[in-house]
Amino acid sequence: MGRPVQIWRVSAAGQVSSVLLACAFIFLAAAPLWAPDYPGSRQQSVGSAPPASPTPSWVISISGPAGSTVLPLSTAQQHGPSAVTIPRTGASSGPLPGWAAFLWATACLLVAGLCVRSAFSLRVTLTATEVVIKNMFRSHRLSLAEISSVASGYYGTVFTLRDGTRVTARAVQKSNLARWTETKTRADQLIDAIGDAAHGE
Questions:
Q1: Average pLDDT of span 180-201
Q2: Count of domains observed in the chain
Q3: Residue ranges making up the domain that contains 67
Q4: Dist CA 129 CA 2 (whole Å)
């Protein structure tokens, strides 16, 4: 009877963190939909009569950039119709234009999709004769006979072939803390299982 197929996927903690990250990017993608109209992009209309407030209202001079001379409302009115609508200047630029919001949402949703894909599609499959590695964008089929060594690391499990080629399986990783404390992890179990399969145990 042949050796049963063994599959290692991304850990539950890794899946949860990837899904949460995807949700964060989905939230960011929708952010332009409810982005407030920041004061820096608003326009202030100056009426024909000064407000009834006992304190003077201030507006930025129509001819100056941010930080230029600020005139009281009564003085601004003396400039005639050209001072009726005065755009406020400042660091805020208001809501994104339509094309920029579309590009922003597309980029955020793309990253969210990659996060979900990395959580549920990455895996290492061990059979009686080979190891099948599925990464984000590429898959590898490695014969047990061509594998020279296997090592676990922070970025994944590294397979070194007899010709010197290295292939990293991103699904199974070993944290630096686990290495420092010499804690046995799923990566070590994978290496042991590959060793047993290679020796026919």
A1: 86
A2: 2
A3: 39-87
A4: 10
